[in-house]
Predict the structure.
Amino acid sequence: QIINDSTIEKKKEVKNTSIPPTAESLPNHVQYLLVGGGTASFAAMRAIRSARPEAQVLMIGEEAALPYMRPPLSKELWREKDLSARFEHPDDISFRQWNGRRRSLLYEPNAFYTSADKLREGNAGAGIARGWKVLNIDPSAHTAVLSNIDTEESHVLTYDKCLIATGVRARRVPALRTAAAAGRSLTLRSVHDTARLAAAVDDPAVKDVAVVGGGFLASELSAALADRLGPSGKRVMQVFRERAPLEGVLPHYLADEAARRLEEAGVTLVASEEVVDSSVDESGRVSLRLSSGATLVANVVAECTGSEPATELAVASGLEIHPELGGILVDAELRARSDLFAAGDVACFYDVALGRRRVEHHDHAVVSGRLAGENMAGVKRPQHYTHQSMFWSDLGPQLGYEAIGIIDSKLHTVGVFSADAVKEQSTEARVLGAADGEEGAKAEGAETEGAKAEGAKAESAPKRYERGVVFYMREKRVVGVLLWNLFNRLHVARQVLAQGEFDDLFEVAKLFSLNDE
Ligand code: FAD
Ligand code: NAD
């Protein structure tokens, strides 16, 4: 939904009358019950309504906002001047994309949704009960127990088919408990969290902000905060356990490149440090005690220390949780039990090509939500998970990357980068393989040897990696492809992943036209 500034002004005047619906206005039975008001749920709703336009669908979401996309919360949104003020109208949040176009964060405006009482009267449509949470499901009886977040009023309804798409929650670190209790260590998962964090870091009294974590969230947020706060002289420090940010997903030389980019953006990196304790003084300043014994002082802490699947409902409902990967165990058709499905971040599914997985990315939420919705609607024969989802990330407008398949730096990787990035090379492109981690070091074959030699050369002089492709290997099979500052090539990556085995990855890399813009 693309909207302009004047539409926003007009929409601000529209009074929202639908949050939260009362228990009396909620239906006693729905055909399709979708638990969670996030991306996977929304995609399932769309698929069901498209397959069965006469269907009655009810989403239950504990957040106050209408369904929205989360990726801009750690990126473009931070370019909005009046960020915390923008959230005064939770039905009307918009942002400017990197390409300059303004866009709504919401998937659909309020008017799109059918009110709960219309559904109760038996009308078709898609409704959302926000501010409500599902506490328990009885998969045999097809009943769900709901509770209102504010009033704790409860409601029981029956369903024909149900989807659980409860996502993940921010993982809190015990070492930051004191800072969190004082309201100085904040997480970033929702629009509500974004508003709180924006109000905190924009406070003129704040001089130093510490972002704890070295994953996607911390790295994206650090870049965005440095861009926002740097001009006013505020300092953004990113502290993490790893040697370089994003080291869990990127081969070591690209993680080093990410570190360079973050430093250039103005972020102070505090690497190889774990936050082991925190305290808050009378003026509200937080002292973070680090594993080396050093202390880092900040006015505000952004706690970007991972996530955990939101499985309380699944556990209360007697569903099976995967012991290592976490999440609700579902088959390749995303079914946990008869008429009960799971999708998105919370689903631990069987990928027929790559094995059992759990994925915490936007596109997977869309793809799996849609698949679950189609299987729930039952118009076509049940489909299984074959479409490989992608993910993307960026560190500001100048550096972005996209990937599909299994992206894990513990795997052996082979990288090929464009000639202009590695200027001393006369060849068109060059393999900069990384025998990262034990699995990589153990891998055999001419390609690995070549890769090691190039990797050693690369270590002697730091290079800039502007544009390239990285193949993630399980033995001889490509199981993941990452495109570094290289866009509109995912269809090629998909084909490479489908074929899997190749004699010469350097030749395969040429398919990606690294030197074309
Ligand atoms: P969610 O979007 O988390 O939705 C689940 C919803 O269910 C939540 O609103 C939750 O409150 C609600 N809920 C939980 N339990 C209950 C219950 N019992 N009853 C009712 N409601 C409940 N991915 C990318 O690929 N690229 C990116 O650039 C990117 N950026 C991100 C930036 C941020 C700041 C964050 C937080 C995530 C980002 N992601 C990104 C990840 C992506 O947003 C998630 O993978 C996606 O939102 C998952 O969708 P979901 O529907 O499974 O879960
Ligand atoms: P993560 O698990 O990737 O990263 C957590 C980081 O915190 C790690 O670097 C870890 O070492 C560090 N850490 C934990 N405790 C620490 C401590 N005490 N001291 C120092 N460092 C500590 O998770 P994340 O980056 O927080 O992401 C959370 C969720 O958001 C995930 O679901 C993720 O997929 C999603 N997300 C995705 C994107 C994207 O796809 N582009 C962007 C943002 C968020």
